[in-house]
Design brief:
Strand order of the largest sheet of chain A: 1-5-6-11-10-9-7-8
Strand content of chain A: 15-25%
Number of domains of chain A: 2
CATH superfamily of the largest domain in chain A: Bira Bifunctional Protein, Domain 2
Shape of chain A: elongated
Number of helices of chain A: 16
Oligomer: homodimer
Largest sheet of chain A: 8 strands, mixed
Chain lengths: 427, 427
């Protein structure tokens, strides 16, 4: 009989992979909580209209997993969380307390060609500060991204958060005489510069976007001007706040960052590896109206999203993923000597668990050698043996599997001794 | 503009609901880890064949969310985790270390009529011990369920794990002369007793199942015989192990528990509230061959699943859901006095976060009264004020919002003082 395969673009999380996902989730949660954010979650299924309102029905059908339910309604597996966030906020807009600080981590689905750093089923951290409109609010979100990068062990020389401001870009385009209706195309042009050859890019600018030579030259000057941010009061305040928040070294102005979506209206940012090897690690920015497409009173905010795949590739490249032992220390193994003493073994295991020590009990009578081999294979720091003599004397034998030593101790002392051999589970 | 509704049978997790889900997940994780289990996860999307192999294509199409992908393949939103577990184990059957202890928590989907304790999108804890075949292994899983119930504060007088053994039932039916091919129908009959009137149930037994009067009487005697377990060596050993594991008071023999699925072959169990008000809180049992339907060498195991909805109803009924403050203590609020001192406020907030204290910073300059009102509304235990005088003197003012007191302290002392006002975040 043949094994049924998994679906293309999905992933199996064996304990080895799951440890990493859980570590990312824990770290995202810790950082979010440190900044005063509350965890929330939307449904995984939403009506297609919720996304179509923002992106158009055709695009949703092309890029998302959609299907008709039994009543003929189009259902979508959420490709992003923001529309659900908008719906949830709009539903309780008057009861909620602003500024609202919410974060979430969960699966999203997109119908894309699976490749390095991209799958059809992936996990994403979303974090938003809603109902506050200031460069200092924007700085908080950038700082959260930076603190996360620092928490997972990435250095400012390895990753940077690149920041720009849509209003600054807009003012520049205005000065170049590029009319409002042409600007979305120019933003897409800027977005594509590092994905095309200089020649192809110039041709795209002049022929497809329809820029004049002087306008194109002006755009190029803007993209090279590392001091342009000084003309934006918002960016000046943003960078000052980032220094005060202690993350200045992780952040720099980058005129080429515009973020594709129409949605953003002020500060935009994304995190990149310094070598430019990978796609954006996270991306976000300020929006004027979260609830525009779903009804409700206009509400401004700032937020970002970070998928689990690119950050994992970056962490792998720099060797920053903690070891299995650090992420999920193996349990102590309590062995079972024979059918009689196994109840003593169960009692000892129960005492250890009551003391908070993760403890696996060998689940049947078997040769001791086989059980000790199992202890080694699961990475147990120690095995506990209770034979008839030990049971009678109220003692146990500890085999320290790391230092290859052995000692006999009283049952009362056992938890304290094992605690010295085994690292704590990470918070 | 009208708000787009959420999909029927899905749930929005506002922070209030999310705190409870996260607490259940944390508790399931802590208990699983204490018993030496490793976290894993399967994909959320699987080919329909994976489920059809176990339940038949028609049943899957009727009870699950299924749709065709762009290649015409039928995809299913996982209605349960066991088939993914079987596939994952079969794929790496020779590399894995047995006994294998794995647990998971995540969303599942079933196309059911939403009602109290049942939704179309729900969360489920799955935990399995694979590659061990003994009543003591079964006892471990029952004990895990019991320790979880104890950890969330439910008493043995409020919830019980009811245990039976399929082989014992089988032996009884054999003695009553009920042939093997009729026994699945008799198991369904037993399963339905508490869902039908005595008259309807008897008619169902005699007419639909086709039992003879003496056989039906024998089944009834079996269901009333609270001492029958003494005839099962497996159950005798199981109950002895449960005593040694310290959970005897949470467990009892229940001849009426058979669990519907053909899948189970030995011990079966489910947790019920003592008043019988709700459906099963958890259900599981021993199986002979996890990987039967997906290829691979036969592999025995024992496991259970617990959804998030019934346990939540039970916990609500008994008032055992911890308060918002216990589940997710609110952050301290650092206020912003004016445009100048706000950078001092940012620095103080950064110091507090570095000290591990969750801290929200007011994200813009606003009247102090408004900021303090916000602190109260989010439940902050304290607000920190840094005006020009405080900034000059290197001190801060703490407003204790619980005891309604105020003091001025040095910045160095601030973290230690706030730590006494604010509970730790739960592990």
């Amino acid at each position: 009989m043949k094994t049924i395969p998994s679906v293309k673009g999905t992933r199996d999380f064996y304990p080895e992979q799951m440890r990493v996902r859980s570590w990312l989730y824990r770290t995202m949660g810790r950082v979010s909580t440190l900044f005063g954010y509350e965890e929330y979650d939307g449904p995984f299924l939403e009506y297609m209209q919720l996304y179509a309102a923002k992106s158009g029905e055709e695009l949703v059908k092309e890029q998302a997993f959609v299907f008709q339910d039994r009543g003929g309604e189009w259902i979508t597996l959420r490709p992003e969380l923001t529309p659900s966030l908008a719906r949830m906020v709009a539903q309780k807009q008057r009861q909620l307390t602003y500024p609202l600080r919410w974060w979430s981590f969960g699966p999203m689905w997109r119908y894309e060609r699976p490749q390095k750093g991209r799958s059809r089923e992936f996990f994403q951290w979303n974090i938003d500060l809603i109902g506050a409109n200031s460069p200092e609010a924007d700085a908080e979100l950038v700082a959260i991204g930076a603190v996360f990068l620092r928490e997972v062990g990435l250095e400012p020389s390895e990753v940077q958060i690149l920041v720009n401001n849509r209003r600054l870009v807009d003012a520049q385009l205005e000065m170049l005489g590029i009319p409002g209706e042409q600007r979305p195309a120019v933003l897409r042009l800027i977005d594509r510069r590092d994905k095309m050859s200089p020649q192809a890019w110039e041709a795209y600018a002049l022929e497809t976007v329809g820029l004049e030579q002087t306008q194109f030259a002006g755009v190029r000057v803007m993209l090279e001007n590392a001091a342009l941010w000084e003309q934006s009061e918002e960016l000046v305040r943003l960078f000052k706040a980032l220094e005060a928040l202690g993350v200045g070294e992780y952040v720099r102005y980058a005129p080429e960052i515009v973020r594709g979506l129409d949605y953003y209206t002020g500060t935009v940012f994304e995190a990149r590896d310094a070598d430019g090897e990978f796609r954006a690690i996270l991306g976000g920015g300020r929006y004027d109206n979260l609830v525009a497409a779903v009804g409700g009173t206009p509400l401004a905010g700032v937020g970002f999203a970070m998928g689990d795949m690119v950050i994992t590739l970056v962490l792998q490249k720099f060797g920053r993923i903690p070891s299995a032992e650090e992420l999920a220390p193996a349990p102590v193994l309590v062995t079972v000597f024979d059918a009689e003493t196994q109840y003593e073994s169960m009692a000892v295991a129960t005492e250890l668990r009551a003391a908070g020590i993760p403890t696996a009990l060998y689940p049947e009578v078997a040769k001791l050698g086989k059980q000790l081999k199992h202890a080694s294979r699961i990475g147990a720091p120690a095995a506990v043996i209770i034979g008839p003599d030990e049971a009678a004397a109220g003692v146990v034998t500890i085999k320290d599997l790391v230092h290859r030593t052995q000692q006999t101790v009283s049952r009362q002392d056992l938890p304290a001794i094992l605690r010295t051999l085994r690292p704590e589970n990470p918070a």
